[in-house]
Amino acid sequence: MFQTLRTLLLPTARCWDANSERSYQDLFERLDTNKDGKVDVAELRAGLKAMGIFRLGAAQKIVSSGDKNKDGSLDFNEFSRYLKEHEKKLRLTFKSLDRNNDGHIDASEIQQSLAELGMDISRENSQKILQSMDIDGTMMVDWNEWREHFLLHPAQNLEEIVRYWKHSTVLDIGDSLAIPDEFTEEEKSSGGWWKQLVAGAVAGAVSRTGTAPLDRMKVFMQVHSSKTNRISLIGGFKQMIMEGGLASLWRGNGINVLKIAPETAIKFMAYEQYKKLLSSEGKKIETHKRFMAGSLAGATAQTAIYPMEVLKTRLTLRKTGQYSGMFDCAKKILRKEGVKAFYKGYVPNLVGIIPYAGIDLAVYESALCLINHSANPGVLVLVACGTISSTCGQLASYPLALVRTRMQAQASLDASDQPSMSSLMRKIVAKDGFFGLYRGILPNFMKVIPAVSISYVVYEYMKTGLGIS
C-alpha cells in the first residue's frame, strides 16, 4: 500500500538525476499543497505519511536541517539544496552496502553489513528489507530505488537506517514477559542503549497508568468472580468506586510502575550474559539460542522482582484502610505469613513466560509479514500487529496468569488450605468449567489496544526528546 502511495507522490523518482532541478520542482509542487511557494512542517508531515514514513519528528528534522533563513519552512532553493546534500550522504551509504561494486544491493550484502554492526538477521529477514525497496521485482536494489526509498527519510547513514528498522516500536501492555531488546555494538559503545531503555520504561509507565482501572478490574474478576458470584464489567467498577472512591481504580498501579525499571535493567543485563554463555567464541548466536537467552533473562528478572508482583496483587485487591502503603503491606505480609508468601504463584508465573513470549514474538513477526512487507511499516500496522500478537500470547498463557493471581491472593490462608498449581486448576475447572480459567479476560483484552497505542506514541516522543529520533 505504502509503495503505491509513494509511487503516486513521486512518479518521476526512478529517473531522477542528482542535477535535475525539474524532478525536485515536481516534488516540491506536490508537497506545497497551499501553493504559497513554501513547504512547512505540516505539509511535509502529510507527504511523509502518504509515503509510509511515520517517524515522529522526521518532518521537523528535515525542515530544521534545510531551513537556512530560519522562517520555519523551506522555499524551493532550500528544499533542493537539502535534497542534494542528503543524496550525497545516501550515496555513501549505498556504496558501503554495495560490497562488490556492481551498482546493486542484494540480500546477502544487507545481511553481511548488518552482521558487522552486531545485528545478526536471517536470510529471510534480509530479503524482506530488500523487498521494501525493490520496485522492479529483481530482488536487487539499484541507486535509483535506494534514493527513492530514503530521499525524504531523515536517516543519513547506515547506523541510523538500521536503528530505524530495529527500534520502530516498543509495546508494553503491562505484562513484560517478551524477549528483551537487542542493541548493536555501536549503540552500546555510544550509550544509545540506555536512552532506548529509558524511553521504553517511561512509555510503559504512562501506558500502565492509563489502563490501570482495567488492570485492577481484571485482577478483581480473576479472584472474586465465579458462577455463583458473577461480576460484570460495569457492576465491578460500581462496586470498587462505592467501596473506595474513584481513586481506588488505580490501586496497585504505583508498584506496577515502580517495578518497570528494575525488571528492564535485570532482563537486559541477564540477556547479554546468557547470550555469551550460549554462543560459541567469535560466532553469531543462532535464533533458537537467542530465544532461549531471552526466556532465561525473563525468568531471571521475574525471579528477582517477583515479591513486587505479589505486593501489586495484594495492593490491587486491598480494601480501604487495609494497608497504608506498599511498605506497610510488605511488613504485614512478612510478619503474618513469612518470606514464602512473597513467592506464592511463582511456578505458574514462570511457566507462563514461555508460551506468552514465544507466541507473542512469533505471531507479531508473522502478522507484520502478512499485513505489510515494508521494513518501515506505519503506526496502524504496528499497533495492529502488536494487538494481535499480544492477544494470542495472552490466550495461551492466561490460565496460568489467573492461577498465579489466585495463589498470590490466597497466600494468607492456612497452609492446609493453599492448593498447588495443578489442584487449583482442577478446582477452578470443576467449579466453573473450562472458561473459568479465563475469568477477567474481557477487561484484559480491552486494555490491549489503548496500552499498545499509548506505549507507541509516548515511546516515539521520548526518543525525540532524548535525541534518538
UniProtKB/TrEMBL annotation:
Residues 19-54, 85-120, 121-156 form the EF-hand domain. GO terms for cellular component: mitochondrial inner membrane. The keyword Transmembrane applies. It is a multi-pass membrane protein. PROSITE patterns: EF_HAND_1, EF_HAND_2, SOLCAR. SUPFAM superfamilies: EF-hand, Mitochondrial carrier. Gene3D superfamilies: EF-hand (1.10.238.10), Mitochondrial carrier domain (1.50.40.10). It catalyses: Mg(2+)(out) + phosphate(in) + ATP(out) = Mg(2+)(in) + phosphate(out) + ATP(in); dAMP(out) + phosphate(in) = dAMP(in) + phosphate(out); ADP(out) + diphosphate(in) = ADP(in) + diphosphate(out); dADP(out) + phosphate(in) + H(+)(out) = dADP(in) + phosphate(out) + H(+)(in). It holds the Pfam family Mito_carr. It comes from the Eukaryota. GO terms for molecular function: antiporter activity; calcium ion binding. Its main location: mitochondrion. Signal peptide: none annotated. Solcar repeats lie at residues 191-277, 285-370, 377-465. Keywords: Antiport, Calcium, Membrane, Metal-binding, Mitochondrion, Mitochondrion inner membrane, Repeat, Transmembrane, Transmembrane helix, Transport. It is found in: Mitochondrion inner membrane. Belongs to the mitochondrial carrier (TC 2.A.29) family. Monomer. This is Calcium-binding mitochondrial carrier protein SCaMC-1-like.
